[in-house]
Write a structure and sequence with these properties.
497 residues; alpha/beta; Rossmann fold; Helicase, Ruva Protein, domain 3; Zinc Finger, Delta Prime, domain 3; 4 domains; five-stranded parallel sheet; 22 helices; elongated
Amino acid sequence: MSTLTNAISSGRIAHAFLFSGPRGVGKTSAARILARCLNCERGPTDSPCGSCELCREITRGGSMDVIEIDGASHTGVDDVRAIKDEVLFPPSSSRFKVYIIDEVHMLSNSAFNALLKTIEEPPPYVRFIFATTEVHKVPATIRSRCQQYAFRLLYHQDIVACLREALIDLNAEADEDALHWIARESTGSLRDAFTLLDQVVSFTEGRITLAVIREKVGVVGSDELTALTRALLTGQAAQAIQVLDDAVMRGVAVERFTADLAEYFRGLLFLRHGVERDSLLAFPVSAYPEELRSGLEVPMLERAIELLLMTYRNLKTCLSPKLELELVLSRLADIRNLITPDQVLREIASLKAKFSLMTEIGREPGSPTPQSSPVEPQPPTEPGPADNVDSTELVTAAVTRLQRERVALAAALERSIGVRIDGETLYLGFREDDRYHGEAVAREPAAVQAALPQPGYKIAVEYLAAPAQEKIAVDDEIETVKRVFRGEIIRGERNGE
């Protein structure tokens, strides 16, 4: 707020201000303070005394010259016209007549249009202060005529410090873990933090402890979440469900339990990433034992949080919220066996590599490796074709090698049938009606020889007649349709046959 302070000190005070930001961050309070800065007997000043009559009236909300309007309930053009009529009269006892319009984005378009001229050229004694949580809904014509200030949520430690100061005024004491719990629950809103503090003070006897808050408000303690997570980590679903049941019987809402458990896993995830700031963790670092911090990998924690968030969204429409969460806990008990997509891809790649290697050496997948089966020593032989070689395996290995650089030749070789070895010659059979592929192989015997895992074979192409049961030729189009639709060919009778 240094810009606003400097503007007041230098006397360059804008005629309209726009305060935007989340709920409970002090927009309306800042507007009242600004009104005191403008109308203080010592002002305009950036440090109002707070003790003069004008400051006290503004603080009490009784000043006739500081008018607060709720934009959510005064949305019409008639309300704005009333303001246009009022600004014609100067302030009764103050230096400025200040209009504070809260939730200004709720005004209608016609109301904004009616207000536009007044904002642009107001009387010298009138100042407008607008507050909104949704600045994007305020027309650009209004925003461009205002000095804009964006308010942000407070840091965790700042809220804790404010709570300590408030406890002095309330003549109460509180444990640190209780103050941190209130600060976390407020999610950056100081107003929410003070409201929750007032509620907690009302049912405590002088000292606020987290144990009392757990009993009265119905919250889940870090010790319970630690015990539940430890049970999930060891696969003890029954123990985890028992922790849930005890909390529910104590009055903890299932929605609250789900949210707290998700926050606990979020803390574990942040710790895995090296984040240890108390303001970012749901609980102190000491609430996360080392075996839990190192027991789950990042993908497992992400999956657990995803399941809990999905469950939280479904609780409002499910048949039984408790049953819904119990089902999730049962699934999370097996979280350590989670297989991530990356692991699946790595395993597939490993299997493909093994399959390719076994195909290259002429073995079927799953067959024992040469090292696993003892072989009797054989006398050395001259290089050449090996005996008892499976001709089909030779062709399969050659096709695999050719697919890398000679795709067309590999496709033609793959159409061979009736492959056989006779002496040093490898005969590649092709159907009579498939001479196209047979001739393609016959034109490049050297390339086929080089692709064989065992060299020394001569390549010969022969053409085979169709088997008796396949006298009726089936062209490629019919075969494609049969394969795509997983059907079969039905042959009918003709001429009484």
